[in-house]
Amino acid sequence: MLPNLPFDPSNLLIAGRWRPADDTLPLTNPSDGLDLTKIARGTAQDVDDAVAAAQAALDGEWGEYTAAERGRVLTRIGQLVLENVDLLTRLESLDVGKPVTQARADALALARYCEFYGGAVDKLHGQTIPYLNGYTVYTLREPHGVTGHIVPWNYPMQIIGRSVGAALAMGNACVLKPAEDACLTALMFAHLARDAGLPDGALNVVPGLGSEAGAALSAHPGVQHLSFTGSVATGAAVQQAAGGNVVPVTLELGGKSPQIVFEDADLETALPFLVNAGLQNAGQTCSASSRILVHHSRFDEVATKMADAYRAKRIGPAESDPDIGPLINAKQRDRVMAFLDRATDVPILAEASVSDDLPAGHYVPARLYGPAAADHPIAQQEIFGPVQVIIPFETEEQAISIANGTEYGLVAGIWTRDGARQMRLAKKLKSGQVFINNYGAGGGVELPFGGVGKSGHGREKGFEALYGFSTLKTVAAFHG
Ligand code: NAD
User: Fold this and answer.
1) Cβ-contact 460, 450 below 8 angstroms
2) How many structural domains compose the chain?
């Protein structure tokens, strides 16, 4: 059951005021398939109002805030997030089906984003540029204006932290469209931001369907920057819509991220990273490590140890804090099961199964496959479920070629003690992040994050997000 909330979850937040929507959508609990509550079904008119409210905030009080003042508000929001970690954790577990420990980590990460961007924003300087005699030239970092944030259901708090947090820090005014499958923590975040003193209209939240509120936001002529995280197809549609208004877009679209285990790898250290980076959030992680590339000499050892780890994993309702919770909805469950049903030609090394006594949620077994051919569909396509494949290789060149051999490039991990090999691979892997003897699965508030290829473009997190959520003005003054 939903705990008491300090806001009505069926409302939208526009111009600092909660208001009912014309229509609502049901929000269900993935752990038992039961309705949790109703959320707003935002319309194009609501998006229009939210964009107007954001623009009014920029033209008013919010637009006058100094960097230090914006930083102070963000830091206060971070403090309130910390004070409400238990409630945020509970909401995320109920709404996303995320095991409690993992939901709590997301709530703490949201607080860290607010602290990081709150502390960073008044340390961001322009440049002075030597030019012709008689000139002084400098650059100014300015907000884009109204920024649109279309957020998926898998990591609402982390993605709001990294995109809305950085955008507010730079002085933009935001319109946030959370996913129709999970939007309670987005609403709670907006509630806390109001309590922290964020001026009206600086953050507006319009829940609703992607095809309605999402499409209206991506095509809105009053939006000056869009940040999207989700599927490749929807990202391409968002970019196309934004193109009509010649608006920059940051796209974070997922991956098929490899970890490469060489013959000299420290397997004891590697093992939890190999397994958990694939199973975290039931594999519904853009930076999940779904491909494990293993030197043929260590294949049996890695396969045996990973298989043992799989058999020990417990699948269950999110609030019982299992290792693996349910998938977000029936559509995702059917999609993942279709992958499993088709992969009959790849050996199953191990499975964590779904016990019969679970409630009627969206559970799938966690499955480890291998050896798999590098071009097999389960080794190429993003499954977005608790599924990993082990792919053997013989040489370093072959490992690089397999690792780079998908249409994605988000994160890669290398396990070797050979320093020269570490440096060579870090350069040769086509990936937005490379982890050496660890695997971050997108973690690290401070670490710039984003993809190449169909994993997307643009960078969020770290200082890079402050550049991304601002535009550079060059001022050339002639004074003789
Ligand atoms: P999606 O990309 O359709 O949805 C993500 C967000 O985009 C949601 O807020 C949704 O409402 C919005 N949206 C949908 N259609 C839109 C449109 N036409 N214009 C603007 N916004 C729109 O993702 P999904 O359907 O929920 O999941 C499908 C697949 O996407 C998954 O199986 C997975 O492979 C991938 N996915 C990736 C990530 C990631 O973190 N990279 C997150 C979620 C889903």
Assistant:
1) yes
2) 2
Angle made by CA atoms 156, 62, 118, in degrees to the nearest 5: 50
Rounded-to-integer distance, Cα 121 and Cα 70, Å = 8
Q: Which residues line ligand 1 (CB under 6 A)?
A: 150-154, 177, 179-180, 210-211, 214-215, 218, 229-231, 234, 237-238, 252-254, 286, 332, 335, 382, 384
pTM tops 0.85, yes or no: yes
Answer whether residue 423 is part of any domain: yes
Q: How confident is the model at residue 442 (pLDDT cuts 50, 70, 90)?
A: low
Range of the domain at 32: 11-253+457-475
How do beta strands 225-229 and 249-252 pair? parallel
Residue 39 in 3-state DSSP?
Answer: strand
pLDDT digits (tens, 9 = 90+) for 220-237: 999 999 999 999 999 999
Kindly state whether residues 356 and 233 are assigned to the same domain: no
- Residues 32, 160 within the same domain: yes
> Which of 234, 286, 329 to mutate to test ligand 1, by most ligand atoms within 8 A of the CB atom?
234
The SS3 assignment for 337 reads helix
